[in-house]
């Protein structure tokens, strides 16, 4: 089984390589760094591979796709170019059993965005189980490390040039303040919500790790469920999943009194869902590693499913920082 990562020297590409290099069931085709944009070599490697990972900016991913002419080459794209495209399969197997089957048979799989992964995992079961009305005015917040912005953004952030104040990198900063973040279309489509959520991300001075939170007023939910009922519905939905766990309510008591650390899933492909708050206002939270389940981990998980392998293969890594 031959695999090629186009964009192997970028943030996501490097992580995918790191994960693939742990295993001996795939042959990883590599391109020298100085030739990473050489189309001739890329065409050769892409068409020789059984699986191509595209870890490129959106436009470069669209162009790379045109270079693949081998009908047997299957593609896993980590960009946001095709996530809501009908000809592509959304790479979130935990959406439903049907979705896992679609990924297994797909020739083109789009890896979900990191914020979108956490949001969809937290909210989709509540819509599917008839708890959250499809027309609910959902709002959502995300606290994220700065590696999610890719190489250029990481450099800007680490050199203090992210905003117009030069020495402010230790302060959390809201962004996407026009409220039109590029993950919104997939957040709406894969939760079956009628409207896009109001989504505000905040980037902080740490490398990786993310927690997405969605507050819900229980009096506006169908049949006014208690916090325990919401927790039970999520626990039941994910009971067979290896990479999504719903934290038992007893274990969230300390967090509720203190604080929610966004880095505790780092180095894993896990998503942890927490149900916090009280019977009137519930906060559904999802914590993941933006470099794990938010990108490279999800990409490898999809590859494993597409190849009919154990989903966990190559998915355990040491924390990054
Ligand atoms: N970082 C993250 O947490 C996540 C990223 N993603 C998505 O994954 C994709 C990759 O992101 P990320 O790894 O962060 O990005 P980076 O900017 O870190 O890496 C992209 C890599 O692709 C190279 N590249 C750019 N254009 C071309 C081209 N035309 N041909 C070949 N190589 C090219 C870049 O080289 P050079 O720098 O020299 O231009 C760089 O090495 C993006 O679409 C991003 O949105 C998705 C989820 C999370
Ligand atoms: C800190 C930061 O900027 N994070 C990125 C998340 C990147 C991601 O999930 O991936 P895609 O770019 O592939 O959608 C952002 O919010 O746009």
Automatic annotation (TrEMBL):
Pathway the protein takes part in: Amino-acid biosynthesis; L-arginine biosynthesis; N(2)-acetyl-L-ornithine from L-glutamate: step 3/4
InterPro entries assigned: AGPR, AGPR_dimerisation_dom, AGPR_type-2, NAD(P)-bd_dom_sf, Semialdehyde_DH_NAD-bd
This protein's record includes keyword Transmembrane helix: no
SMART domains (alphabetical): Semialdhyde_dh
Record-listed E.C. numbers: 1.2.1.38
Cellular localisation: Cytoplasm
Gene3D superfamilies: Dihydrodipicolinate Reductase, domain 2, NAD(P)-binding Rossmann-like Domain
Residues at the catalytic site: 114
Main localisation: cytoplasm
Oxidoreductase among keywords: yes
Keyword terms, alphabetized: Amino-acid biosynthesis, Arginine biosynthesis, Cytoplasm, NADP, Oxidoreductase
EC supergroup of this enzyme: oxidoreductase
Domain Semialdehyde dehydrogenase NAD-binding residue range list: 2-103
Family (UniProt): Belongs to the NAGSA dehydrogenase family. Type 2 subfamily.
NCBIfam families linked: argC_other
Function: Catalyzes the NADPH-dependent reduction of N-acetyl-5-glutamyl phosphate to yield N-acetyl-L-glutamate 5-semialdehyde.
Identification of the protein by name: N-acetyl-gamma-glutamyl-phosphate reductase
Gene that encodes it: argC
